[in-house]
Write a structure and sequence with these properties.
Number of domains: 2
CATH architecture of the largest domain: 3-Layer(aba) Sandwich
CATH class of the largest domain: Alpha Beta
Strand content: 15-25%
Structural class: alpha/beta
Strand order of the largest sheet: 2-3-1-4-5-6
Helix content: 25-40%
Oligomer: single chain
Shape: globular
CATH topology of the largest domain: Rossmann fold
Low-confidence stretches: 1-12, 40-50, 184-194
Largest sheet: 6 strands, mixed
Number of helices: 10
Order of helices and strands: HEHEEHEHEHEHHEEHHEH
Radius of gyration: 20 Å
Number of strands: 9
CATH superfamily of the largest domain: P-loop containing nucleotide triphosphate hydrolases
């Protein structure tokens, strides 16, 4: 992203704003945010609906402060947890200075694309149509661009590859042109990073998504119970993975505890890399029947009902 940073330094005036990244599952929203910021703040997984929280990260240069808001994938709710996630995601749109509506250029518009764009119909903020994954198309241009363009009123259309960082400088140049000039003497004037416990729980959950399939990732959540700093300056993190059934717990623990140990070891390494501290991770698995359908349990696990 050095080219992007040089681009911002060449242009005049301090611009600062909040840009919401929006779209259905598996179009590359989290991967784009992480690529732009060189910071793994969002869960990236081939499994749909892996992002549950709207996470904020900062892209900053001498004359530009841009808060990127990665949002959960838009889809028809399946349970109370989904309803809470969708409601919270829509609420961040009202604070956007611009919206990146991301789509997968390899395929025509889906019902979930149409559902996602319908939430943008009343916004005053400019909306950019971002057609991703052009590196996986033979001539690097999506034949479905016109079909996507008909879904809404877009300021412009940019075809990119988030993975190979193709046209990202072009994308950010377009966004910069609509971001207002305003004071942004400190990043926290625009955004707070994800709460510490939430960010840590997402690091653990990402490893669950990586290793376990079927219904377990969707039925699991991570609760950080305690954070303790030891005299040796090690962070002791006590956490539980909650699932809904005993059979899910058995799979997650694995034969002789091998699966949960592997998840815990990899999560600890990623925590140390992300936070720059030494960690001791005490990770257990608990059964909490029907937690996705109960407001009291959703509040317990940090979801704002």
């Amino acid at each position: 992203m050095d080219n992007v940073n040089r681009h911002f330094k060449r242009t005049g005036g301090l611009r600062a704003g909040r840009v919401v990244v929006w779209g259905r599952a598996n179009v590359g929203k989290s991967a784009l945010v992480n690529s732009l910021t060189n910071d793994a703040v969002s869960v990236v997984s081939p499994r749909p609906h892996s992002t549950r929280y709207s996470s904020m990260s900062l892209l900053k240069s001498d004359d530009f402060h841009l808060v990127l808001v990665d949002t959960p994938s838009q889809h028809a709710p399946r349970h109370q947890l989904d309803k809470v996630i969708m409601r919270r995601a829509v609420s961040v749109l009202g604070e956007a200075d611009a919206v990146l509506f991301m789509v997968d250029g390899r395929f025509p518009p889906t019902d979930e694309d149409r559902l996602a764009v319908s939430a943008l119909s009343d916004l005053e903020a400019p909306i950019f149509l971002v057609v991703n994954k052009i590196d996986e198309i033979e001539d690097m241009r999506s034949v479905y661009v016109e079909s996507f363009a008909e879904l809404g009123c877009f300021r412009s259309i940019i075809q990119i590859s988030g993975e190979l960082q193709i046209n990202l400088e072009l994308l950010l140049g377009q966004v910069r042109s609509v971001i207002p000039n305003r004071l942004a003497s400190h990043p926290r004037a625009l955004a707070e990073r994800s709460p510490e416990k939430q960010a840590m729980s997402e690091v653990i959950r990402e490893r669950i998504l990586h290793h376990v399939r079927e219904e377990i990732p969707d039925a699991s959540t991570v609760e950080v119970k305690r954070l303790i700093r030891t005299p040796e300056d090690v962070i002791k993190l006590v956490a539980s993975v909650h699932v809904e059934k005993g059979t899910q717990k058995a799979i997650l623990i694995g034969q002789n505890g091998r699966m949960i140990r592997r998840i815990g070891t990899e999560a600890r390494k990623n925590l140390e890399s992300n936070f720059g501290r030494r960690f001791y991770l005490d990770l257990k698995v608990e059964v909490t029947p029907g937690w996705r359908h109960k407001d009291c349990q959703l509040r317990r696990f940090g979801y704002q009902v």
